[in-house]
Amino acid sequence: xxxxxxxxxxxxxxxxxxxxxxxxxxxxxxxxxxxxxxxxxxxxxxxxxxxxxxxxxxxxxxxxxxxxxxxxxxxxxxxxxxxxxxxxxxxxxxxxxxxxxxxxxxxxxxxxxxxxxxxxxxxxxxxxxxxxxxxxxxxxxxxxxxxxxxxxxxxxxxxxxxxxxxxxxxxxxxxxxxxxxxxxxxxxxxxxxxxxxxxxxxxxxxxxxxxxxxxxxxxxxxxxxxxxxxxxxxxxxxxxxxxxxxxxxxxxxxxxxxxxxxxxxxxxxxxxxxxxxxxxxxxxxxxxxxxxxxxxxxxxxxxxxxxxxxxxxxxxxxxxxxxxxxxxxxxxxxxxxxxxxxxxxxxxxxxxxxxxxxxxxxxxxxxxxxxxxxxxxxxxxxxxxxxxxxxxxxxxxxxxxxxxxxxxxxxxxxxxxxxxxx
Length: 422
Ligand code: SF4
Ligand code: SF4
Description:
Layout: H1 35-38, E1 41-42, H2 55-61, H3 68-75, H4 92-110, H5 141-154, E2 159-164, E3 173-176, E4 181-184, E5 193-200, H6 203-206, H7 212-238, E6 243-246, H8 253-259, E7 264-265, E8 271-272, E9 280-287, H9 301-307, H10 310-314, E10 338-339, H11 345-355, H12 361-364, H13 375-388, H14 393-403, H15 411-415
Antiparallel strand pairs: 1-10, 2-5, 3-4, 5-9, 6-9, 7-8
Helix pairs in contact: 3-11, 4-7, 13-14
One iron/sulfur cluster binds next to helix 9 and helix 10.
């Protein structure tokens, strides 16, 4: 099938009989000089991903995914009482806590709903201020990048990288939530630079996965991202340059973050960073502000994942693959034409909706998920990341298995004060 946006009109909602459009093999350059260091193995049949095929959007149009539990799961993002039950980690208190974490993101999503937009999830995020009429002169892209990073860190960014725009990671089509239909991708042209920002999720709360309590860490990570992006985007537009902010909309974040030198792709299909492991939430800003680029790096994370299967072994529904990266697609939620570790999102999402909340067991058990709350712990983690990237990676794995407690903590443990009370 060829790209034909007009064929998916608002009067033609998505369904199994009217599935998302495929634009076919990508017509732009499929290779980039940075691919090797990024560990991107792009194949000739590479296709850009259609956002309508992601598992959350399939929960709205694909009868194979839709169910009452899925509807309740979406409703539970706004109401704490939907899935609350008399079980530690899933009580009304835990769900209320989780909802509090999501507030910043929910406010962002809701503000443009009346205009037919779902900012941050289906559509890019409208920046608070408009673009100033006059551009502030920029001394050099290098100096501006340093200043921008300083600004972003003050506004909450814990990691930040800058790279060039790469349309391979842009969704080929967006989702029209008003009509449950496909709509054309709509990122303005000329935004040549991409800024990737990451904020951390709380280490102790993650230890309680699976639970609604733990879902607070994810929600609050998103909310921090939403606030940081708005502030950084407002700064850029105030300087007279355009900024389009993006959370789960517009483009895939992990490959962009890898290109910006922030980390590598893990077996669990998440970004693993050398500073905070997989315990980060990332967002991005597309801009025409002149900026210098960071370069991708390797830390030996792929090689470590090859000897470590802990996430695959711990995943309750078996959604994470053992073995090496593959171009095999398990269902339409996997991207075509790229050899990498992908997960079975159908199994993963079913587990989430059965719980009534999200899951992050694969983050909890990942050896790169380390407590970095003190100077000494940070130092140890840096040493461990270095060791895991050498030929002594089996020793690094052994150290983790032997000395780091990765068992689930009861959510009641966190409510009693967590490690601070131990
Ligand atoms: S989030 Fe949970 S269910 Fe999904 S892949 Fe990770 S461990 Fe498996
Ligand atoms: S648990 Fe092990 S295999 Fe899975 S992502 Fe983390 S390091 Fe890689």
